Amino acid sequence: MTGPGPTTHDWALRQLLAYSAGMLPERELETLEDHLRTCPDCRSRLAPLKPAAGTGPGHLPASLIATWWRSSRLLGGLERELVEAHLEWCESCRQALAFAGHEPALAGGPDATVVPARRGARPARSMDEQARRVWLWALGLTGAAAALAAWLLAARPGLFGGGPDGRTSATMGAPARRGEGTVEFELAVDSLAAGAIALPQPGFRGTPARPLEAGVVTNVSGVVLILPPALRPPSPEAGERRLVITFLRDGRELASRSCSFYALGDAIRVRPQGRLEPGDYDLRFALAPAAEGEPPIVWFYRLRVR
Amino acid sequence: MLGCGAIACPPPLARGRQRSRRTPLAASVTPPSSAPNWSALRAFALQRIRGRLRFAPAETLEDLTQEVLVTLFRLSQRETLVNPEALASTLVHRTCVDYVRRMRGPSGRLDPLPDSGGPLELPSPDPAHAIGVDMLELLRFVVLEHLRQNDAPCHELATDFFAEQSWSSVARRMQLRHNTVIKRWSRCMEQIRELAYTQRGPVWDWAREAGIV
Questions:
Q1: Residue B124 and residue B37 share a domain
Q2: Complex ipTM over 0.95
């Protein structure tokens, strides 16, 4: 994010939304507040972004409640968990949902069948007991898994790729779905491979509304993705920045790999262990910021597998 | 006449497609003794919204009416609504203007719109912005709820700021220096940026598209 130049007012206008969401970095925040003190135009544009009376931001937005059955099913991951946790303790929001004719439960969605961790829910004795039991089970299973991993590491050291690239097959602690298995990322592969798909510049295609057709993806050849210019480092310095590739389905991480930006090469291959189940998958590239305090750059592509 | 009791009035009309899912408005909650007539208020709000957004689809009109009524309901839970029709008119204006802004995408949120009571012009439909939820509000909610669960001091700062929309005001209220408050909040923001870096979902997608995280 660049600082204000000669046209401070124009710069300030572009920052107002981020300011209103509380997302501006420290330096910009100070500059913008200085500007707001002297600029009635910016203040008047900021005013409508204030929450309306009766709709404090600490509660579910009225627009979400009004469209609950459509909108709540779109929520995924942490958003969904937070909404569910909020409904656990907030009588006011449950009442508002009941008033609008809805049950205080999210409509089916990516994690509809998964019982999420209800962080911050009201403490209750039965929940404490359940949590203790879960912890005991988790500790036992973790111990068993550690012992198994130690044995495998000693007996078959090549089994764990790992290495300096920090390759993982993370599922964010959740068991991978049956049939999905682990996905491997191969970097700097031949971009002339048969069936390679050219990824468009971010934002043009490969969006949820316009996914990229990847066809059938199996372990035999995987799918080769040719990277657009935006995913090639413009300078050697940029090439040193860390980049994390993540493969997701329904907001759930199936695999991720960390590497240097330059290590991507011209194309990458996504290779599943077996055959990828038909459906939509997301491929996320997250590039570490160039300077401390700046936001990371994130690109998403939606792939449709048959 | 909008002042009759909720019990004496017929239940409000449920929306066409979702009719079977809805219970009558305010049917399952205990309203205050002087509860507004929700059915009449609903008809009133729908009529006003239809007048402001003449070419909006019926489903959108129903959504916005419901949004207005939910806000009215929340207000009625806090205090007795002395003049619900006037309040409904104000909320209709605000809701319609906000809706038009939302439909214009993130940058459209700052567009000046006429304050007059005339019809509002809807932008051409864009599937990317078709979701009816106010994503800015939802982002604030997600941030607050995350901080509520994980960091009470940051939650207090965020609550104050989202209500005031001014760090100077927050600093005054907390009797702290402006710089101190901003530095504290910047540390809180690290958590949120981390989330924006790793999370997937409509809120984060919207925030990234808007260039605010």
A1: yes
A2: no
Last residue of a domain, one of B129, B152, B184: B129
CB-based contacts of B202, cutoff 8 Å, min separation 6 = A74, A75, A76, A79, B131, B133, B135, B138
**d(Cα A230, Cα A201) in Å, to the nearest integer?**
6
pLDDT at residue A41 above 80? yes
**What is the domain count for chain B?**
2
What's chain A's average pLDDT?
A: 75
A237 touches chain B (CB under 8 A): no
A98: phi > 0 → left, psi -120 to 50 → alpha, else beta; which? Answer: alpha
Range of the domain at A27: 8-49
In B, residues 47-106, which contact A (CB 8 Å cutoff)? Answer: 63-64, 66-75, 77-78, 91, 94-95, 97-98, 101, 106
A136: left (phi over 0), alpha (psi -120 to 50) or beta: alpha
Nearest residue of B to residue A41, measured between CA atoms: B112
Residues from chain A contacting residue B24 (CB–CB below 8 Å) = 101
Number of domains comprising chain A:
2
B150 interfaces chain A, CB cutoff of 8 Å: yes
Nearest-CA distance A141 → chain B (Å): 27
Distances from the Cα of B57 to the Cα of A170, B53, B63, B125, B130, angstroms: 44, 9, 10, 11, 12
pLDDT digits (tens, 9 = 90+) for B69-109: 999 999 998 888 888 999 999 999 989 988 888 888 777 77
Burial state string for A114-123 with b = 16 or more CB within 10 A and e = fewer than 16: eebebbbeee
Of A21-35, A55-69, A203-217, B12-26, which range is least confident? B12-26
pTM equals 0.58
Tokens 């199996």, residue located: A218
A13 touches chain B (CB under 8 A): yes
Write the CATH number for A205: 2.60.40
